[in-house]
Amino acid sequence: LPKGMKQLAGIIDADIHMRGAPEAPDIEGVVTVREGRIEFDKLEQPIRDIEIRVVGSGGTATVERASARVGSGTASATGTMQTSMSGAGGFSVNAEFTGVDLTVKNIVAARASGRLRWNGTAASSLLKGRVTVDEAEVTYKAGVAELFARRPRAVIIPQATGPRSHVALDIAADIIEPVRVRSNLAETELTGG
């Protein structure tokens, strides 16, 4: 499993036929995932009830439907991708999520809804949409010594070795409820306007 993932499960059915050059294959067929489940180390809720149907035809893979549950909320997506192995193929994904619970253990608990559109190529893409945070709570436990310690910190960013990708973001965020921030030292609420 990839680092940070605890479980990946589900039933995959595939009927795929490939022909043509390896760098630009013509893929025909259908892949479905049902009863899927993904668990991450740091997220309290699993992504469950994953259902996906992808159809390949004429050099294009189409996600006819993708859906899942996260906490008490739901998420769904559709999209297309050109099946060029060179990375030059384009893609477009539309996603919608409603009342999705995202809890990062002992740090953040939030419920959000939104619509996002991500399109472009592997080299350059745009993620655009609106996210509404219905409620959120941030918890941080720190000792007094940590709070007042003056330590220089170096941030080391390793040099990229593979192809680079540029993702532009254009996302509007609305905060509906106040965000509660709690630690063992203080507690506050952040509200707008």
How would you sum up this structure, described in words?
- The protein has 193 residues and is mostly beta strands.
- The protein has one helix and eleven strands, in the order ββββββββαβββ.
- It has one helix at residues 144-148, and strands at residues 5-19, 26-40, 47-57, 60-70, 73-82, 90-104, 108-121, 124-140, 166-175, 179-183, 187-190.
- Strand 1 and strand 2 (26-40) form a beta hairpin.
- The longest helix is centred in the C-terminal third of the chain and has 5 residues, at 144-148.
- The protein starts with a strand and ends with a strand.
- 5% of the residues are buried.
Write out key terms for the chains shown:
single chain, 193 residues, mainly beta, elongated
What series of H and E elements makes up the topology? Answer: EEEEEEEEHEEE
Described by strand count, sense and barrel closure, the largest sheet is: 11 strands, mixed
By DSSP, the count of extended strands is 11
The helix content is under 10%
N- and C-termini, Cα separation: 45 Å
Q: Helices and strands: which structural class?
A: mainly beta
Rg, Cα atoms, Å: 21 Å
Query: Mean pLDDT, rounded to whole units?
Result: 80
Count of alpha and pi helical runs: 1
Oligomer status: single chain
Outline type: elongated
Low-confidence stretches: 150-155
DSSP strand content: over 45%
